[in-house]
Amino acid sequence: MTELAQAAGLDLVFSQRSKRLLSDLFHQRQQILKMTCMENPVDYSQQKIPSLLWYLESLPPTYHVDEQNIMKHLSGDGSILQSPSATASAYLRTGSSKCLEYLEFLVQKCPNGVPAEYPLDEELIKLCLVDHVQRLGLAEHFEEEIEDILKLVYKNLRKQDLEPANRRLVAAKLYKDALAFRLLRMQGHDVKPSCFCWFLQHADTLEYIEQNCEQLTSVLYNVYRATDVMFRREYELEEARAFSRKLLEKSISFSCKDDDLVIFPGLHKLIKHELTLPWITRLDQLDQRMWIEENKISPLWIGKASFYRLFHLQHEKMVQLANENYKLRQSVYAKELEQLKRWSKESGLREIGFGREKTAYCYFAVAASSCLPRDSVVRLIVAKIAILITVADDFYDVEGSTRELKILTKAIQRWNGENLTGHSKIIFDALCDLVMDIARKYNHQREGSKFLKGIRDIWQETFGAWMVERTWSDTGYRASLDEYLDIGMISIGAHTIILPACCFLSQDYPIEKLKPDNYGKITKLFMSAARLLNDTQSYQKEQIDGKMNMVLLHLDENPNAKIDGSVAYVKGILEEKTKEFLEIVLMDDGPEEIPKSCKHFHLSCMKVFHMFFNSTNLFDSEEELLNDIKKAVYIPPDLDSQISDLYLPPPPEKEEILQISARWDVNTTQHFLHGIGKESAV
């Protein structure tokens, strides 16, 4: 349109921003021509790469196009491959009445903006909206709508062909199938990897994706995200994850070079974030904040013309709602954190004089990891339990003498703190008060006494495990791997945190699950994974302190092994347990009848432990998480900042733009015509 305007004698004046975008536009034309013609001659029968017809509007106006070739490829609706912009260019070149009818219908049908392709895949748009709403942190307000959409998608999924009939549709279908797989699996539907991993079975499709990976960045991004929810023995997902990761790393490494296509604002950052921090290690609140801040232009799906867009006003309203929702939660979190700090001080735990002071860390972990209702008491209950576990664990590990610990452990078993003094008395009194406060808040009257006994049993088991580990340390006893894990999965305290919370999340949660001999499979996997995560990041410190650790025990039992091999062994066990855990959490018809809210809270807490111990021991750090805490609790999202990290070529002068156009009109056109030959020239 710029070239047509200039040819008509219009004096165009561009802002500095427009100049940069225009320069990028010519740059993209160069990439399109290179992609479709110079390196890969088009085979229309197979459509292994996007046809130049699909990008007809990218050709210079002075470039001669065979009208018969255009007319031969008109679709039944009068479009060129369902592309409005290519069809508009075809009409200007041929004057076809069929093209005009398509364009006039489209303008009337879409008064708020013509889409990149038409007809639109309405199911794809709905999937994109569900994904967008969830990532903005608004899912709690649209639960019924999301459920209805995904039920319909799941119903239609079984009727669809596994692979596209036309290679031109590979990108759109793969994007849609990968997105549907992730959303449906996260919602509890039974979907198999084959519903989107079909592309792995076709060498020509893999070649097409590899050759065009820069243009398919968002497709690969979606494929990679779909593999986050991997179960055991899903080898197709492992292959898809490795394949997409390799090409994403290649794409982002090229995205800032002068001779490559620009990735839309925010996508480069999102991809780097995804590759650097696995989904299982990220907290929902911070992910939602990033999506709010990076979605200034509503990128829902990358296609031919960069992306489908929400109507601008609708997108602004959604982001505004997400921003207000985020700030409302922050106001609740800030008040609760201050309340928690007062409790920690009044109970004597905050100023006990030893160990780690982790009040803010504990509250941040539960608040930022889950979307509990704003009025939920669970956040404070979980945070208080976590604080008490941290102090008591440090007392058994470092501060307390063996005699003090034996006396305290017996007092816990009797649930009687008479004659306790000093630190032991502070810990016991804080524990007793906390347990009674939790029991009073539990409003299921018929189960009240069972609930109280269940919580006490859990605490007695946890303190008992700490005493066993201290005895092992004092006597130099070396446990077997299985013996150590049986005690270690209790001493980590993960079940002590999560089981009381589940009783508050759903009154349908069985009280029997509080009994030490009756923990559910999902809880046991969570306990084991929490211990293994801690051990992979604490073995160096515990080796110095002379304490047991899963990594060190494996090293002892395998004299020829090296420390890296022992770490890899423990991580391998952790990976399998995490996959099994996800399968129980995400499958509605799993072996355990546990309310979905309790399953999802298990997942939230699992992600917390992965966050703390992914690549280092963040829980023991002094300041590593302070910035994230501020973002989650105090600092509102930044919606006013301008895009600054997007690469764009330097702004050209008007003469430079005309020179670029002229170069393509003459020299380059002749070059790529010679390369593709007469028969396939468009």
Strand content: under 5%
> How do the helices and strands follow one another from N- to C-terminus?
HHHHHHHHHHHHHHHHHHHHHHHHHHH
Termini separation = 20 Å
Radius of gyration: 30 Å
Largest sheet: none
- Output mean pLDDT: 85
Tell me the structural class: mainly alpha
Flag low-confidence runs.
38-50, 258-262, 297-303, 305-309, 642-682
Q: Give the total of beta strands.
A: 0
Keywords: Magnesium, Metal-binding
Cofactor: Mg(2+)
Protein name: (E,E)-geranyllinalool synthase isoform X2
Domain Terpene synthase N-terminal: 96-275
Give structural attributes.
682 residues; mainly alpha
Describe what this molecule looks like in 3D.
The protein is an all-alpha fold. The model is unreliable at 38-50, 258-262, 297-303, 305-309 and 642-682 (pLDDT under 50). The protein is elongated. It contains 27 helices and no strands. The longest helix is centred in the middle third of the chain and has 35 residues, at 312-346.
Summarize the structure.
With 682 residues, the protein is mainly α.
List the helices and strands and how they pair.
Layout: H1 2-7, H2 16-38, H3 67-72, H4 84-94, H5 97-109, H6 122-135, H7 143-157, H8 170-187, H9 203-211, H10 217-226, H11 235-254, H12 267-276, H13 284-294, H14 312-346, H15 359-369, H16 378-399, H17 402-414, H18 422-441, H19 448-475, H20 481-491, H21 494-505, H22 521-545, H23 550-557, H24 563-586, H25 596-612, H26 626-633, H27 654-676
